[in-house]
Amino acid sequence: MMASNPSSTAGGGVTGNDLRVILVDEDLAQRRIMREALESYHNAHILAETDNLFYGYDLVRQNKPTIVFVDVRSDVSATLDVVKRINTYVRDTLVIVSGPEPDRELMHQFMAAGARDYLTRPLMTEGINQCLNLHLASLFADTTHGDDSGRIITVFSNKGGLGKTTTAINLALALAQVTGQSVALADLNLQLGDVSTFLDITPRQTIVDLVRNVNRLDAAYLKNSLHQYQCPSLAPGSGSVYVLADSPRMEDAEEITSGQINSVLTVLKNTFPYVVIDAPGTIDAKSVVSLDMADYILLTAIINLPSIRSTQRTLSLFSRLGYPAAKTKLLINRFVEGEEISIEDVEDTLGVPVFWRLPNEYFNVIKAINRGVPLAEINPNSPIWQELLQMAHALCGKLPQGGSEALPSVGGGAVLPQGVVGPAPAGKAPRMPLFSGFKPGVSIFGKR
Ligand SMILES: Nc1ncnc2c1ncn2[C@@H]1O[C@H](COP(=O)(O)OP(=O)(O)O)[C@@H](O)[C@H]1O
Ligand SMILES: [Mg+2]
Description:
5-stranded parallel sheet; disordered N terminus; binds adenosine-5'-diphosphate
């Protein structure tokens, strides 16, 4: 295979807002379609094209394009490896892969490797444009704002007992391991938080002390007052997790205002590259701050009707709050293969893709809770910890900022027969096209 020469078409006047593209694709006709699709963007420049994966990787490393399109067909495992490398070494380049209709496992692997999208071939201009439009707002928001502040990931569900605290704690540790950076873990269950119990720590200061000193909060003050949690089971080179716990005195919650929560989160975000929030299971003026300020909301559900129903209502609320679709990531916890309601049923009903699944591992999870240690300490090889690491990897890429695309209104206030999951949105729901098997508008009962 001969590599094509890179053909620089960017010319002069390339600005930070230019869409600089590299195409790595063996198929000349498909490259022509991609060029045609890019013509409708006045700021798009194809920096180089090649039919060779490894030469393509070199080009990406040298040119650091905004986007690289990669054909996965010739060698899936080599492509996975290249995607991982790009995600590690050229972090700001967005990778879009294309190949045959993938199975779920393959999409999962590409996503975990850091691809932002998987397009099914043959490529069409509309599909490419749709995909670009989905990602451009976040791309340019990142480059134009030069925002170095940290990313807030809020773990939320509007029911208790679905695994928020378990997920938040272990995700914070997984992020510390995957990124090697410091991660803040904030327990915003102001009355009866569980983080300090789950980790068996007694922090010297809690959120109440922080809000009392809100006017002199800065990075140094924060790092001194938060509890630096050491987990011996994390890989060498991992970052630290700094815990902001709730007050042991329940009545203290009363004195904390939403404005103060906003201030605390702002300082956390300016101090730590990642902030993971264990959010309360209610939505009110205080708790909504951690949702508003989140870059990502990990909306946690389990596969049963009450949980799916309440997730549907939560998605509907997020839509009314005007959150961009890409902000909410649906997390299925306690997943068991082969259950009566499948992942596809859940996606069809809710009209959003499932972002990640965490397996049901009752004994590991309950052992971790009862011993007051994280999952990595119970068994670093357990599937649940491995999945958490992969999820952390997927979350630490570029995050969407701003964007105008709101979630569709779900349910639409229809009166539902008791126990029946309501209608999915009638229109086409905005979603990450990574999961191409999406069929909106089908009730999970339609499949029974
Ligand atoms: N992946 C999982 N597998 C098995 N059990 C789990 C899992 N995640 C959570 N649990 C169980 O669910 C219970 C509630 O988890 P927790 O993290 O406290 O949820 P929340 O914070 O949403 O109330 C825990 O007692 C734990 O045993
Ligand atoms: Mg909890």
